[in-house]
Amino acid sequence: MRILRKMADMAANAKFRIKLLVSYFLLVSFIILILGFAYYQISAKNMLLNVKESLGNVVINNNQLLDEKLQSIRDKSEMLPIDNELYRVITETDVTDNASLLKTDRKITQILFKYFGGDMDIYASFIVTPSYNFGNTARMFVMPDGFMASSLYRKSIEGKGNLVWIPTYRYAETLGEKDMSSLKFEFNKLASAVKQLKLTFVDEKGIFHSLPDTIPEPILMVNLTTDYIGRLFADYAQHSEYRHLSYGIVDDGGAVVIHSDEALIAKHNRPVWLEEAADRNNGSIQKVIDGKPVVISFSRMESTGWISYIEIPVEDALQDLNALRRYSTLFLIIMLIVSIILAYAMSVFITKPISRMKKAMKLMERGNFHIHIPEHGRDEFGHLIRTFNHMNGRIETLIEENYASRLREKEAELMALNLQLNPHFLYNTLTTLYWIAVENNQQEMSLIIHNLADMLQTSTRNKKETWPLRTDLDWLNKYIYIMSSRFENVFHVQIDVAAELLDMEVPKLFLQPFVENAIIHGLAEKEQDGAIVINGWSDSLMVYFTVEDNGCGMDKALIDQLKTGKMNSTGMPNVDKRIKLLYGSEYGVDIHPSEDGGTTVHIRMGLIASRRDMVEIK
Q: TM spans, by residue (predicted)?
């Protein structure tokens, strides 16, 4: 984790040009590697298919050539049972007379030569009876007793007159010559074809004769060397470009007829893929054998039913891809070099405008705002430079405006200090007037002046937007007293506000404009019995106030003009806006005509004002 964190820090702190170079290099490398890998996989797949097809054709062609030769042997063996001469020789032989046996041997040798003598690939051919082995014994000799006790004889009997092919076997072990098992023979590894000869004869009269029951049916034995069977595969392997090619022929039981490794010939070495191959007869299989993937192309021989195959490692099949791998590596290196050059050129092109802006920012940092970067192009960097120049000019303008604003603030501060003297001067003046009224026994005037001075002092001392409802009602009562002195016996005011609301914060003087409107506009024409009722209560959601009078009232058209702002009014819009700012848009002021002809003002406020709006007014 520490190493990854260091690498991340290095990447974060690297220059933009380095980041651009590295990212472009990695991107190009990734694309080339992916394309190279995909191309290699596709090429390998196609090459493997071609190799399978090629090997399959070789196996099929070799099988066809072998089938032609072996089918010739089968065809010739089909002629022997109806050979009249062979029938007479066998029936006329006296097995107890050696001279007769020798004479029969010469005649049968001539007969066998007539059928098989012209085929140089046949190693030896015999007709074996329980008493004698007839045929050419110059190259090999088969003892009748050993043959009759061998698996060759049993399979010939099981064939019931059909030619049976015997996979490769060892001469001494198969024919019971145990004393000769340690010796080496030219014919030690043979493949044979055996057939029970059901001899027949047709005489001159056309009468069909079969072999008498007293004479055992002879067995034809044709021997082939493994060189004969595997010569075509050996020639292909010798001239093949594959270094680790192997081949073989096996029967369905796994007995090895031929194999490129001679040590495996005449042994039972069942391949792991044999069962699958036996079901398909011909084709190609890819398996993992001894930890290595290999390709096996196989085909079944029509004449014998054996399966011949060629096996090569996948690595050998793809050996031509080594050149492709080298060329791909060279191409990758060239592309990476080109990508580095292009990335460097692109980074210079991209970072040059950024470098200009960086230098300009350093000059701005030193206080020099009279900078203009040359604008080139309409791309993103051109737009960025134009924006920077505009921003620089705007900053210069704002600095000048800020300087002028500070001068104005100084002037405003001096003016505010001067204005602070005015309320103090006015309060002192009202106090002087109060004492003059007291000295002249003008009690009513002195109380009016005293209330007005208190109202002025309360307003100037409290500089917040809100104050407690208790303070607002106290200020309102002083105002009502002054107005009652002017309109003596014209109206009276009743205030009924819940005690728990007296300490809540309310907008300053929010009731005064409505009381003033009720006195001046609603009750001005009354001579007596004017009434103004102020109520205040709350529920769990909001606080409610009403100011109701029994004056002349307002018609609906006038109220609508007041609400829409068509009628010039200051008090109601001012209070309404302040309440909405303090509590929210769902609160505010509404006006309705009263049932008795007057006017009712409804005020809705929240329980708690927003603190962001409760700022001190300076």
A: 21-40, 330-351
How big is the chain, counted in residues?
A: 618
**Interatomic CA distance for residues 164 and 99, integer angstroms:** 32
136: which 2 tokens?
């050419």
Domain-embedded: residue 455: no
Whether the pLDDT of residue 119 is over 80: the answer is no
119 lies in a domain?
Answer: yes
DSSP line for 55-98: HHHHHHHHHHHHHHHHHHHHHHHHHGGG-HHHHHHHHH--TT-H
Task: List pLDDT tens digits, range 232-247.
Answer: 888 888 888 888 888 9
CA dihedral 64, 66, 67, 69 (to 10 degrees): 130
Are both 158 and 90 inside the same structural domain? yes
Q: What distance lies between CA 98 and its chain's CA centroid?
A: 90
CA distance 503 to 139: 135
Give the orientation angle of helix 443-461 with respect to helix 380-439, to 10 degrees: 160
**In angstroms, how far is CA 201 from the centroid of its own chain?**
82
Quote the CA–CA distance of 256 and 268 in Å, as a whole number: 6
> What is the model's pLDDT at position 164?
92
User: Quick one: 119 and 214 in the same domain?
Assistant: yes
127: CATH: 3.30.450.20
Whether residue 424 is predicted with pLDDT greater than 60 in this model: the reply is no
Q: Residue 490 — φ and ψ, nearest 5°?
A: -90, -35
How far is Cα 167 from Cα 267, in angstroms, rounded to an integer?
10
**Domain count within the chain:** 3
535 domain-assigned: yes
**Are residues 203 and 268 located together in one domain of the fold?**
no
Show Cβ contacts of residue 291 under 8 Å, excluding neighbours closer than 6 positions.
none
Asked whether residue 203 falls in the same domain as residue 267, the answer is no
Cα angle for residues 310, 270, 220 (degrees, 5° grid):
90
For residue 395, pLDDT beyond 70: yes
pLDDT above 80 (res 328): no
Mean pLDDT of the chain: 81
- How far apart are the C-alpha atoms of 187 and 178, rounded to whole Å? 16
Contacts of 450 (CB under 8 A, 6+ apart): 434
Looking at the whole model, is its pTM more than 0.70?
no
Print the domain residue range for 257. Answer: 245-317
Residue 306: strand, helix, or coil: coil
Q: Is the pLDDT of residue 495 over 90?
A: yes
Q: Which of 139, 107, 122 is nearest to 72 (CA)?
A: 122
CA dihedral 15, 16, 21, 23 (to 10 degrees): 110
